[in-house]
Known about the structure:
The chain is an alpha/beta fold. Helix content is about 35%, strand content about 20%. It is built from eight helices and nine strands. The strands form two sheets. The chain has a five-stranded parallel beta sheet, sandwiched between helices. A four-stranded parallel beta sheet has the order 1-2-3-4, with helices on one face. Strand 3, helix 4 and strand 4 form a beta-alpha-beta unit. Helix 1 crosses helix 3 and helix 2 (about 40-45) runs antiparallel to helix 3 (about 55-70). The radius of gyration is 20 Å and the shape is globular.
Amino acid sequence: QKKWDIIIATSGRLMTACLGAWIAKQTNSKLYLDIRDLFTDTMDNILEKKTLRILMPLFYKLEKWAFCSADKINVVSAGFVDYVKSIKPDLSPSVHTNGVDKIFFKNNFSTDQVQLKPLVLYTGNIGDGQGLHKIIPKAAKEFKNIQFRLIGDGSARELLTDNHSNESLNNVEVLKPVLRSDLINEYQKADILFLHLNDYKAFNKVLPSKIFEYAATCKPILAGVSG
């Protein structure tokens, strides 16, 4: 109901970008899109063998409409540039990557404590995109002298918690998301920070935002990623 000069929308979710584009159209405003994830590119991989794949043409049309509605587009990974330009060739996207919250620079993450079991910590989404269910159970069985702690939620969480083959693993914890202040404490306790992406072609383009947060702690990072 109001008149805005500029609408700024992020595409961590495709429909958020579409909502921003719709509002910009309604109010005749300039539209700035911040592309944080190539939704259709990712879903094309995830839905490859699923019936919901019939929705892909709709997703592509919505994405093209949102991108072509924008006056300016920013991407968080240089790997996204060619994809965006293939949809809107006359636009040159800017590249501003993810940053790090100031709270990480106000805390000391170093520790002199030697743990009986080294603690490998993962924090964030636990979905098909991360594919943690494909690597954590096997890694935990292979390295029983290491403690694995996963903090987060997502569509694939039950694959980790409800799998009968995982019940005998006493070196894996899957915890619900915690407050930001508590997360800082978890980072301080950890020996190694873990990052993983499923083996999808679309992920060869991404720059996981978690890398920035992990790097700010100056702790070792164990990453299973491509691209």
